[in-house]
Each structure stands twice: as structure tokens, then as C-alpha cells.
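The instructor's notes for this session suggest beginning with a concrete chain rather than abstract definitions. Hand out the sequence below and ask the class to guess, before any prediction is shown, which regions might be ordered.
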Amino acid sequence: GTSPSHTQVTWNGMKINSPMLGMTDFSMIPSYFIDDASLLHGTSSVNVTGGGLGGAIVLSTEPTRQRGFGLQYVQGAGSFSTFDEYLRLTYGSDRWQVSTRAVYSSSPNDFRYVNRDKKENIYDGQHNIIGQYYPVERNRNGAFRDLHLLQEVYYNTGRGDRFGLTAWYVNSRRGIPLLSVSYAADDYENLQREHTLRSVVTWDHVRTHYKVSAKAGYVNSNLAYDYSRDLGNGVMAQMIRSRSRVNTVYGQIGGEYYIGSKWLFTADITAHQHFVVSSDKNIITQQGGNAVVGYDKARMELSAYVSAKWRPTERLGISAALREELYGRSASPVIPALFVDYTVSRRGQVVVKGSVSRNYRFPTLNDLYFQPGGNTDLVPESGFSYDGGISFAIGKEGVYSLHGEATWFDSYIDDWILWLPLGGNTNYWTPLNMKDVHAYGVELKAGYDRMLSKEWQLGLDGNFSWTPSVNRGEAFSKGDRSLGRQLPYVPVYSAAVTGRLAYKSWRLLYKWCYYSERFTMTSNAFTYTGNVPYYLMNDVTLEKLFSARWADLSVKAAVKNLFDEEYVSVLGRPMPGINFEIFLDIRPKWGKKKARD
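After discussion, reveal the predicted structure:
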């Protein structure tokens, strides 16, 4: 029920949200590079970082814990000349774990679609219009080429000390497709490029009753965006030539201490020092006689956290947490959070839980300093979040398992930051603290697994969300029609179901999802451009596993958008119809054994 910048994302402990935009592009995170992922809703995000008014996503890599050399290679080929390649080389011993991973993805991404935003006329011999039709067009300028490299080295002394180094390099080149309403010719350039290096060094000192850890990291990111048009004489004129450079230094010190089996105390201090230079080389303004191009700013982000977890009985657990945030010279009030869970019945593992917390999110560097439009008078967004729920889990080992969860949440966010166009003679947008948002709703989850026989296994998982996110603030002007309306691009209803069926070495996976209508305007206007229609999506994959003396292999065929649904996720950006991809996975057997902890 919130915006992308309200979700904080960490990788091996380090925040990877852009300090400029405040958000993370998940299309630039290969699933092959993630060994463990946790989704923390609303209040629980306080336990890992501040600013997560909508929650947090915790991503991490882990050692393989295999002895000897290992190799995995995956080759994928699909529609629109799409190719995906993944290679992983590993080496492990009792002390060392080394891994090198590489992902390369490329595609012209030139799928065909029926353009419902245009109409072509049909003429008779006298040039009279006798009919119309929707043209079939190609997705133009959407080609991409992404390279990801991940190097990991882990060392375990065997005496309670563990060291780790992870380094992740990204080289990306992506075209930005034309809007479906564009009549532009192909004589233009609309391109974004990225070179990013993220690295983290870790140390963990583990003893029976306590743990001490330290982390240090560095991020270097160079972003470029170019937009050029042909003047009509073959000469390309650069309209936009944006360049941004981000350097971030990260450090964290933390510890845990157990007192018996009932108390756990946790504390950590985290620092992110950002250095950002952002400019549009084609825009130069004069201030006091000096040329100003974009902005050049540094900002320190400090976060201190303490928590105490108490389990007085086997059925009751209580956790209290405090977090303090400092962004530059601005500090948040103390951020408190309280969590309680109680096992109502051991039979069926019926657990009720509840939590409450406060949180703050500071403006991003673009919010404050982007030129033109940045607003240095912005104040941090703040919110109170409450949630409560009940869960259960029943089953019979080796036969079936059934689990479910229902959660209610309620969140109030004050001083919501929203970019709006300025009136008068200006032609740019600026961010304002103008929205008070009430986000609330219900989330339902369920899962069922069944052993039909020794050879057949069935699994089902589903979820449903009802998430109104409504503007409850004061009117910005007499014509403000956003009060009491749903936030743009937030669906009120969404659902997903995943089905799994396995027979011997065959695997069948079916995914279904649904998103309700979303509005593109704060007024929720029912106009042609004011909403994005609901859509259903169906994906299916079939996989066959093989085991040879020299390797384990699998062949997987994936069909996406099975029923050729016409849909858009963002207004004016058509998505592909039915498309296919085939994957070959090879894992040679080189006598690998599991390493000792």
C-alpha cells in the first residue's frame, strides 16, 4: 500500500536503495545471486533498518558448504531472441568456501503487440474513411544487455570466527521503449547505462552465549542516460545527457547476547556515507555568476538499534526495539516497536500475534537537490503502523501439511512526499509534503502439501490482499480531487496461486496472479488515461531431471502469459503476449562432499 521508496532493501546487511531515488530496481537483481531472502512487512522492518514505512526485503548470499570443486551452467533461450546464461564455479574445504558466479542476459525485446492506443483508418478508392483498426506494432528501442559478476570468499577458522568477502559487479545497457502513443520515427536514442560495484567484508565471532559481528562495504555506481533526436539532416542533437556518480562507504558493528533460553539482547550501529554527483550536461543555469549543473552532495546516514526479546513461557514471546536515525544534520525521534506472539494451542500450532511501531523516512537527495525542482524545505515522512494476525499449521509427517495465516494491518503516514507540476510559467515538477495517507487492509495466505503416493507429490500455495491506500490529507487547492482517493498504481485487490506437481523426475509448476484496476491519477479519474485495467496472468513450467554418472542435468520449458493476455503494468507500456523459454541446467559430479561446519 505504499510507494517503492518506502521499501528498504539490504544485501548482506548493506542498504542498496539508491540515495538519489530512494528505491531499488528488482529487475537488476538476478535470482541466481540470492541464496536467502526475507520479506519483512511494515512494523518488522524496524528490526533491520529505518525508513521501511512499507516494509523491508533482506537479501543475502551464503557459502555452498561443499567440499571439492563444483560447477553449474544454465543456458536459456526464448522468444524475441532472448538469451539467459548462468555459470557458477565453486571450491570448498573444511575452512574455505570460494564461489564465482556470472549472469548474462540479452534480448532485442522487440515483441509484437496490438496497439489499443492508436487507430488506423481504412479508406476506399475515393479516400473516404470506411473503417478503423488497431495496428500491430513492435516494441521499439527496448533491447537490453546485462552482465552480473559475483565473487565470494568465506573462511572459517574452526574456533568460532568466520570471515567473508562478497563483491558484485553490474554492467547494464538498456533501451527505454517508446510509449504506445508515440509516433516518433526510429531516428532517436533513448538509452540508460549502469556500471555498479558493491562489495562487503564481514567478520563474525560466535560463542555459546554471544555473537559479535562487524561489516564494512563500498559501493561505486556510475549511471548514464542519453536522449538524442535527429534534427532532420542526419545530425543527432543531444536533448538530455545525464550523468550520476554515487560512492557509498558502509560500516556496521553489532552483537547478540543470550541469557539462558528466555532472553536475547541485540544491538548494532550502522553507518552509510554517500557521495553523489548528479548532472545533466546539457542544462546549465547561472546562480551568483557560477555555473551550476545538477548537484554535488554528501550525506551521512547513521542508525542505532537495540532490542530485547523475552520468552517467559514456551507459549508467549515479547520483543521490544528502539531505533534512532540520523540523516546529515537531521535526526529522527526515537523509533519504538513492540511485538507479541502467543501460542493459543499447540495442537494445530495456532499462534496469534500483534505489533506496533513508528517509523520515519527522510527525503532522498533528488527530493532535496534535484535541479530544477528540488525542495530543501521538505520534512521527513513519519508513520504509525499496527498489525495483528493468526496462523496455524497442521499435518502428518510424510503424508500432508496444511498451514495458513490471516493478517490485518493499519498504517498512517504523515507528510507524504509527492512530486507535482508547478503552475505559472514553470515547466518542471517539485516535491511537496502534502499527503497524509491511511494504508490498511487484510492479507491471507495458505499452503498445502500432499504425498499422493511414493511417486506423486502435490503442493499448493495462495495469497490474497485487500490494500486500500487512501489520501486523508488537506486539499492542496480548490480543485484538488485527490482527497479520499486510492493512491496511484496501488491495486486495491491482488491475489496469486502457485501449484506444484511432481512425478518421479518430472516437475510441473503453474502460477496464476491477479491485479485489480489501478489508477494513474490522484483524482482516480475514470478517463482513458486515468486507469490501468485489471489483468490475470498465467505461467507454466515443465521440468525433467536427469542423472548421469558424470552430471546431474535438467531441461525446463517455460510458457509465460499462457493465454496471451493483453495487458500493461504501467500506462503506455505494453507487455508481451505469450512467450516461451527453454533452459538446460548442467551440474557435473566431481565427488563433492558436504563440508563440516
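Then share the key points. The mean pLDDT is 91. Residues 417 and 432 are 5 Å apart (CA to CA).
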